[in-house]
Structures are given as structure tokens and as C-alpha cells.
Design goal:
Blueprint (H helix, E strand, L loop, with lengths): L4 H63 L3 H16 L6 H22 L3 H5 L1 H35 L4 H8 L11 H4 L7
Helix pairs in contact: 1-2, 1-3, 1-5, 1-6, 2-3
Length: about 190
């Protein structure tokens, strides 16, 4: 049985088309899995940020009982919490990170304020809230690290040839990294 050259060429082209289609589907599925991982890791950041937002009012009330005349600091913490909550899940990563950075700064001022009030520093409720907030900050840092790792994996895949062809055709783009705000990156100044 003699196969014509046209038939052989058609078979070869058909095999190549099928292989390219399988590769494109596989690459698309990898991109979707990585995008879903980014979304899931962002949801974990959201959970931890909400937890922090929930702790702040209790902390403010505890401090208010001991240092009620420090109104400016307490108001700044409440305003920063409101700003962070307003920057919610629908905001860009950069806007959210900036709002959370402001909250972190004001909480730092609140804890520095507590140093001037020995009774407050010894209050068990304050100590428990401070410890809980510190644990939550650690969880936020881990969640941010996990999110940034997921973004990096998607970024690497979406910008590597030939995967970038599928990413470009399907509109899959990696989101921004969740970076610390400028204030959070500044070195801590210790004064004696």
C-alpha cells in the first residue's frame, strides 16, 4: 500500500495540531491552577487582616481606660482601622498594603504610648490583646509571603516562552506583589 505524499503531509500536520492543542490546554490549566492559588493565598491575607481589624477596637477600649487623655493617638488608630477596612478586598494590592501600613504605624504608636502607663502595661487584658495582635501580625507576614510566592510562580509561568503565548491569548496576568509600605520598610529607630 502506497501512501501519497499529500496524505502523509496531512497526517503529520494533524498530529502536530493535536500536540499543540494538548500543550495549549495543559499550559492553560497550569495558569488557571496558579491563578487560583494566588486568589486562595489572597483570601488568607484577608482573613488575617480582618482578625487584626477585629482586635483593634478592644485594644483601643483597654487603652482608653488608662490613657483616655491621649485622644489624638486613639483617634489616629481608629481612623487608620477605618481606612484599612475601607481599602477592603475590592482595592488594588498597593492601596490595601498602604492602608494596612498606616494601621501598623498607628498601632506602633499606641504600644509606645503604653510604655508611659505602668498600670496599662501590667493589665492582663492589654497584654493578652498585645500578644494576640503580635501573633496575628506574624500570620499576616506568613500569608503575605505565601501570596507573593504564588504570584511569583504565576508571573514566572506567564512570562516564560512559550507559556506567555497562552497567557497573552487568555488574558491571564499576575497581580501585584503585596509589598510592605515605605514606613514599614524604614529601619526602626531606637532612642535611649
Amino acid at each position: 500500500m502506497n501512501l501519497s505524499p499529500l496524505l502523509i503531509a496531512t497526517i503529520v500536520v494533524a498530529i502536530l495540531v493535536v500536540l499543540v492543542a494538548f500543550w495549549a490546554i495543559r499550559t492553560f490549566n497550569v495558569l488557571i491552577r496558579q491563578r487560583n492559588q494566588v486568589r486562595a493565598s489572597w483570601a488568607q491575607i484577608d482573613v488575617q487582616l480582618k482578625r487584626r481589624h477585629d482586635l483593634v477596637p478592644n485594644l483601643v477600649e483597654t487603652v482608653k481606660g488608662y490613657a483616655g487623655h491621649e485622644r489624638a493617638t486613639l483617634d489616629a488608630v481608629v481612623a487608620a482601622r477605618a481606612g484599612a477596612m475601607a481599602a477592603g478586598a475590592d482595592s488594588s494590592v498597593d492601596r490595601r498594603a498602604a492602608a494596612e501600613g498606616v494601621l501598623t504605624q498607628t498601632l506602633g504608636r499606641l504600644f509606645a504610648l503604653a510604655e508611659a502607663y505602668p498600670d496599662l502595661k501590667a493589665n492582663q487584658n492589654f497584654l493578652a490583646l498585645q500578644n494576640e495582635l503580635a501573633n496575628t501580625e506574624d500570620k499576616i507576614a506568613y500569608a503575605r509571603q505565601f501570596y507573593n510566592t504564588a504570584v511569583q510562580a504565576l508571573d514566572n509561568t506567564a512570562h516564560s516562552f512559550p507559556s506567555l503565548l497562552v497567557a497573552g491569548a487568555t488574558g491571564i496576568r499576575p497581580p501585584d506583589y503585596f509589598q510592605a509600605s515605605g514606613a514599614e520598610q524604614a529601619p526602626v529607630q531606637v532612642r535611649f
